[in-house]
Design a protein that fits this description.
heterodimer; A: alpha/beta; Rossmann fold; 24 helices; B: alpha/beta; six-stranded parallel β-sheet; four-stranded mixed β-sheet; 23% strand; binds iron/sulfur cluster
Chain lengths: 473, 213
């Protein structure tokens, strides 16, 4: 699904030249990084809570069938209909069928990354159903005809001025000014009628609570409740890894999720949706459908990517990623960007399509340090690299170069000779300690400089130093 | 084979040992909630109400402290007046509110799409996060808490709970409402350049009338 057309390298190159994008990314991720640090510092129990959060997710993953069946039982008892989908195509078919059978003309949607993952926006369009995104950021990118560039702030690549242009064209009346407050008011006015006129509301779920059958959404805008209450039908799409044993377990994870995502302590609206409207209820939908989606998750359960199922989609790994902060989310080409996306996209789109992603990582380990459920992201990225090598997906030049290196590495004399020639040759390209361009390495030097080597290899210097010490003794 | 069978079979195939008995799984899950004080924030204030006010105010919630429910209409009038709003109010259709003397305020129990102000009851308050808990029901429309620009909520001080787990414990084994919502401050967004704007889709103002001690 959503396999990128252009290669990662081309997209990343284009984004690196985009100065406006760089400013937009820096504003949001910089803010998120600072606020998270403050929130974590204010919560001395954070590390203990993190270990607990990880243990909760591991417990669920180890007993996933048990909890799925428990959830299904309780959600059904509450009056919801539970559907199962092995992959994105099955999920799309289930949702379109519900929409068509209900003769739905207008569908409102509250932001859900799983909806993006299964290609729901396109499926609804193909079925001739009008879709209105209600999360402010999703509203912006729907108007722009784009995909999310971040899992928490999907429109973070757009500046205020760019948003104003979109709103002026789409809103009636257009916003009077282009400051954020005026534009938010304009979206509130514009979307109000759509909320109340929708036939179906679709939401995602941050947690599926097994012992009650409730689905839990967290938002700051209040759009999820306005999406799920007025229409006749509420559909939830959720990955099967979203289960938690009980509401209390969901709260334990929520403490980690909010602090890691926005640096807040609690989302403004934390809602448990349990079944459709009860007899006599003042409002609410008559039907509730829950679509449980596998789409590669049971495959991860069986291989080395199993820890990735712990992910609670907080976005901290991308906010702290040097690569993400240079190129933004779109360059990754999949539904999920950043370090977590580089692990997940090969699962979803296939490694052959996305082998560049696990390579676009500096292995500095920041992502794993901030991940609230201790996912060893660099280790998982390395696992993809290994697989890519084993499955012979590396381009011929890389294989050849590494082959040559391996041959020399096994012959110390040859290796030392090679590196002696290398460091001396490299000095020819640099002035004042930095190399700004290098033949065959333009891809490296276009956006960074290479330090000019000292003119001698480590082994040469080491020997000289040893000889000097010997002489002194 | 249905998708359900395929998914459950794949999960079972990935597990080296057979699934332990349900009681053993439940015991393990319960142990993951042990010693909650070691994994949650500690309150700063000794008094629950003070901690609740501290947390909720930090998020932009405003407060009025009242001796009893009879004081509610006057306090609402004061609030509407201070904000230059017309004396009109969508009232949650709950007997406790309908029983009050609303002379001078035009009350109605339907919430308009562009409602300026609405008044509802919170079932609990959670001090740890400054959250108000509301449940859907026959006399509790959910839209009442989302359509208005000004959301005024009555909270009894004696229904304050210290932590999120205390609310979960209250609800464990109870019949669940369609919607249980923890409202924590007014609606807001940081979706445009990360600048914080209040009143995104839900209320831009959240005002709590705290009753009694
Ligand atoms: S991998 Fe960790 S840090 Fe990244 S989104 Fe998932 S939970 Fe958050």
């Amino acid at each position: 699904m959503n396999a990128p057309q252009q290669g990662f390298k081309e997209r990343a190159d284009a984004e690196l030249k985009n100065a406006v994008l760089k400013i937009a990314i820096d504003r949001t991720t910089g803010n998120a990084e600072r606020k998270r640090a403050v929130a974590v510092a204010a919560f001395p129990e954070f590390q203990a809570a993190r270990a607990r959060g990880r243990a909760i997710k591991d417990h669920v993953i180890a007993h996933l069938d048990h909890y799925l069946e428990m959830f299904e039982r309780n959600a059904t008892a509450a009056g919801a209909t539970v559907h199962w989908a092995s992959d994105d195509a099955e999920a799309r078919a289930i949702i379109t069928r519900i929409c068509l059978e209900a003769d739905a003309k207008l569908v409102t949607r509250a932001k859900s990354m799983l909806g993006e993952e299964i290609g729901l926006p396109h499926a609804l369009a193909d079925a001739g159903i009008e879709r209105v995104e209600t999360d402010l950021a999703e509203h912006i990118i729907q108007l722009a005809g784009e995909r999310p560039s971040h899992i928490v702030w999907p429109a973070m690549h757009r500046t205020r001025e760019q948003v104003a242009i979109l709103f002026k064209e789409a809103h009636h009346p257009p916003p009077a000014a282009d400051d954020p407050a005026t534009m938010v008011q304009s979206a509130r006015r514009e979307l109000r009628a759509r909320f109340l006129g929708a036939d179906i509301g679709i939401s995602g779920a941050n947690f599926l609570v097994a012992d009650t059958g409730a689905t839990c959404t967290v938002t700051n805008e209040g759009n999820a409740e306005l999406t799920t209450t007025p229409p006749r039908i509420h559909i939830v799409t959720a990955g099967i890894e979203k289960l938690v044993p009980s509401t209390a377990h969901a709260f334990a994870l929520l403490r980690l999720l909010v602090r890691s995502a926005t640096g807040g302590e609690m989302t403004q609206y934390t809602t448990l949706h349990c079944g459709p409207k009860r007899p006599g209820d003042a409002d609410g939908p008559e039907e509730m459908h829950i679509v449980l989606v596998d789409n590669g998750r049971t495959r991860m359960l069986a291989d080395e990517f199993r820890p990735m199922l712990r992910c609670i989609r907080c976005g901290a790994c991308m906010n702290h990623c040097v690569v993400y902060r240079q190129i933004g989310g779109h360059a990754y080409g999949g539904t999920y960007p950043g370090p977590m996306g580089a692990v997940l996209t090969p699962v979803l789109d296939g490694l052959a399509q996305s082998r560049d992603l696990p390579h676009a990582c500096t292995m500095n380990g920041r992502c794993a340090e901030v991940c609230p459920v201790e996912i060893p992201l660099p280790t998982l990225l390395r696992a993809w690299r290994t697989r890519s090598w084993r499955e012979r997906l590396e381009p011929r030049s890389v294989r050849a170069a590494l082959g040559l290196w391996a041959m020399a590495a096994r012959r110390p004399g040859l290796y030392r000779l090679g590196s002696r020639i290398g460091v001396r040759a490299l000095r020819l390209f640099g002035r004042r300690g930095w190399i700004a361009s290098l033949p065959l390495a333009g891809g490296w030097t276009a956006y960074r400089d290479l330090p000019r080597p000292l003119g001698r290899t480590f082994m040469e210097q080491y020997r000289a130093e040893q000889a000097r010490k010997e002489g002194r003794r | 084979m249905t998708a359900r069978d395929r998914i459950l079979a794949a999960i079972r195939a990935a597990r080296p040992a057979p699934l332990p008995p349900a009681e053993a799984i439940a015991a393990e899950a319960a142990a993951l909630l042990d010693a909650p004080e070691s994994v949650r924030p500690r309150p700063v204030e000794a008094v629950l109400a003070a901690e609740f006010v501290r947390k909720a105010s930090a998020l932009g919630t405003s407060f009025d402290h009242l001796p009893d429910r009879a004081a509610i209409p006057l306090a609402v009038n004061r609030y509407l007046d201070t904000h230059g709003l017309p004396p009109a109010l969508a009232l949650q259709p709950a007997p406790a509110l309908a029983a009050l003397d609303w002379t001078g305020i035009d009350t109605h129990d339907a919430v308009a799409p562009d409602q300026t102000a609405a008044l509802g009851l919170a079932l609990w308050g959670i001090a740890e996060t400054g959250s108000l808990v509301i449940h859907s029901g026959a006399d509790a429309p959910i839209l009442l808490s989302f359509l208005p620009l000004h959301h005024i909520v009555v909270l009894e001080e004696r229904s304050l709970l210290p932590h999120l787990e205390d609310y979960a414990a209250r609800m464990a084994g109870q019949p669940q409402p369609r919607n249980a919502i923890l409202i924590t401050g007014p609606s807001g967004t940081t979706d445009i350049e990360g600048s914080y704007v209040r009143g995104a889709h839900g209320p831009g103002f959240l005002h709590v009338l705290m009753i009694g001690g």
